[in-house]
C-alpha cells in the first residue's frame, strides 16, 4: 500500500475527486510551486471559487493527506504536496503555457549556424536554457555517426592503450582504454589490421555488430592476444562517449542561490556530485526514448535524484530520420514552474533537432 492510497488507483485519483477537493488540491500545489512553502486553510478561504470555512478546507486537506497527495511539514503549518501529489498534479491538472517571443528569439540566436561547430552550439544552448529557467541545464550531445575510415591502436603503458579513430568526414577521436594483459606491438598491429579490413563505410555501431560476428568465425585466424584486444577493445565504443559524446551541465549557481537552508545545499551538492560521477547518466536520459515529447521526473522517481529531492524536465531531440540522438533538460527543486519550463524545454529540443538535421 503506497502513501495511504487504498481503493483508488493512482491514475484515477484526480478524476475521483469532487470539485471542491480538486480545487483545494490544485490551489495548494500552485501555492507551493509559487512560494515554496506550505499553504494554510485560511489562505485558501480567500481564493476559493466558493465561500467555504477554514474548517471545511482543513477537512478536505486531511482527506488529501490520507490519500498521500499532501503532507504537513509542521503542526498547524499548512500543507505541501508530496512527490506523489506533484506527479498527480503534473499528469492531471498542469496548465502548460506558451513560449514567449523573447524566449523564441533568444533560442534562435543561440542555435545560429556556426558552420560545423555543433559542440559549441550545444554548449550555448545549455547556458541559455539555464539562464531562461533559472535552473541547471543538461544537454546530452549526439554520438558521432559518420562512417569510419581508419583505426589505429597505440600502446601508452602496460595497462593503458590509445585507440585513434579517423572518420570519413575528417574528424579524429582519441580514446584511452585498458587493454588485456600481455599485449605486444604485433598483437596491436594485427588487431588494427583486422578492424581496418572490415571498416569501410561502417559507423562505430555497425562495425561493432560486424566484429562480433567475424570474431566468432575467424578466431582461429587471430592471435589470441589480438582477439582479446579486439573484444576488450570494445571499450573504445562501449566506454564513455559510446552512446553520446558528453553531458553538458550549466547553471549550478542557480540552484545554490535558490536555497539557504543547509539541508537544501547538501542535497544540491549531492546532486551535482552524482552528475559528475555517474557513468550511467546517458542510460538515465535514454528514458526519453520511451516516447516523443517532454518527460518529467519528480524527486525519487529516478535513482539519480533520490537523495537530492530534485526534478528533471527533459525532452529528446531527433535528426532528420526521426531518430533520437540526444536530449535537453532542466534540473531544479521539486517546486519548479513546470507550466513555464515544459514548453521551453520542448521548444529547445525541437529547435536543436531542426538545426542538427540541416547540418546533415
Walk me through this protein's architecture.
- The structure is a single chain.
- By secondary structure, the chain is of the alpha+beta class.
- It folds into three domains: 10-92, Arc Repressor Mutant, subunit A (Orthogonal Bundle); 101-143 and 243-358, GAF domain (Beta-Lactamase, 2-Layer Sandwich), CATH 3.30.450.40; 148-238, Enolase-like, N-terminal domain (Enolase-like, domain 1, 2-Layer Sandwich).
- The protein contains 15 helices and ten strands.
- The strands form three sheets. The protein has a five-stranded antiparallel β-sheet.
- Strand 4 (148-157) and strand 5 (160-167) form a beta hairpin.
- Helix 6 packs antiparallel against helix 7 (118-133) and helix 6 packs parallel to helix 15 (338-358).
- The protein is elongated, with a radius of gyration of 26 Å.
- One of its GO terms (biological process) is negative regulation of DNA-templated transcription.
- Keywords: Repressor, Stress response, Transcription, Transcription regulation.
- It holds the Pfam family HrcA.
Write the layout of secondary structure elements.
Layout: H1 13-16, H2 19-35, H3 41-45, H4 54-66, E1 70-71, E2 80-81, H5 83-92, H6 101-110, H7 118-133, E3 136-142, E4 148-157, E5 160-167, E6 172-177, H8 185-196, H9 204-218, H10 224-232, H11 235-238, E7 244-250, H12 252-257, H13 262-277, H14 281-285, E8 295-298, E9 310-318, E10 324-333, H15 338-358
Antiparallel strand pairs: 1-2, 3-7, 3-10, 4-5, 5-6, 8-9, 9-10
Amino acid at each position: 500500500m503506497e502513501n495511504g492510497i487504498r481503493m483508488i488507483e493512482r491514475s484515477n485519483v484526480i478524476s475521483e475527486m469532487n470539485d471542491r477537493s480538486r480545487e483545494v488540491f490544485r490551489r495548494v500545489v500552485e501555492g507551493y510551486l509559487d512560494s515554496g512553502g506550505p499553504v494554510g486553510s485560511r489562505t485558501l478561504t480567500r481564493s476559493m471559487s466558493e465561500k467555504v470555512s477554514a474548517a471545511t478546507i482543513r477537512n478536505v486537506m486531511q482527506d488529501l493527506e490520507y490519500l498521500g497527495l499532501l503532507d504537513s511539514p509542521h503542526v498547524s503549518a499548512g500543507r505541501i504536496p508530496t512527490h506523489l501529489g506533484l506527479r498527480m498534479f503534473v499528469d492531471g491538472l498542469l496548465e502548460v503555457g506558451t513560449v514567449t517571443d523573447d524566449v523564441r528569439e533568444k533560442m534562435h540566436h543561440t542555435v545560429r549556424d556556426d558552420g560545423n561547430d555543433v559542440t559549441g552550439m550545444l554548449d550555448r544552448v545549455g547556458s541559455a536554457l539555464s539562464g531562461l529557467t533559472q535552473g541547471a541545464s543538461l544537454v546530452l550531445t549526439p554520438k558521432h555517426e559518420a562512417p569510419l575510415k581508419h583505426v589505429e591502436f597505440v600502446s601508452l603503458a602496460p595497462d593503458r592503450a590509445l585507440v585513434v579513430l579517423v572518420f570519413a568526414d575528417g574528424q579524429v577521436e582519441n580514446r584511452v582504454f585498458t587493454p588485456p594483459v600481455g599485449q605486444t606491438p604485433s598483437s596491436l598491429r594485427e588487431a588494427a589490421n583486422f578492424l581496418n579490413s572490415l571498416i569501410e563505410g561502417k559507423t562505430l555501431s555497425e562495425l561493432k555488430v560486424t566484429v562480433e560476428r567475424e570474431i566468432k568465425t575467424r578466431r582461429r585466424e587471430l592471435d589470441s592476444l589480438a582477439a582479446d584486444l579486439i573484444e576488450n577493445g570494445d571499450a573504445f565504443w562501449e566506454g564513455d562517449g559510446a552512446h553520446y559524446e558528453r553531458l553538458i551541465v550549466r547553471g549550478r549557481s542557480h540552484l545554490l542561490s535558490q536555497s539557504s537552508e543547509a539541508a537544501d545545499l547538501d542535497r544540491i551538492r549531492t546532486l551535482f556530485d552524482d552528475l559528475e560521477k555517474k557513468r550511467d547518466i546517458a542510460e538515465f536520459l535514454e528514458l526519453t526514448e520511451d516516447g516523443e515529447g517532454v518527460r518529467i521526473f519528480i524527486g525519487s522517481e529516478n535513482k539519480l535524484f533520490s537523495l537530492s529531492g530534485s526534478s528533471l524536465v527533459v525532452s529528446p531531440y531527433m535528426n532528420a530520420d526521426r531518430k533520437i540522438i540526444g536530449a535537453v533538460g532542466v534540473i531544479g527543486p521539486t517546486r519548479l514552474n513546470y507550466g513555464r519550463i515544459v514548453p521551453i524545454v520542448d521548444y529547445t529540443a525541437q529547435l536543436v533537432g531542426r538545426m542538427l538535421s540541416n547540418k546533415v
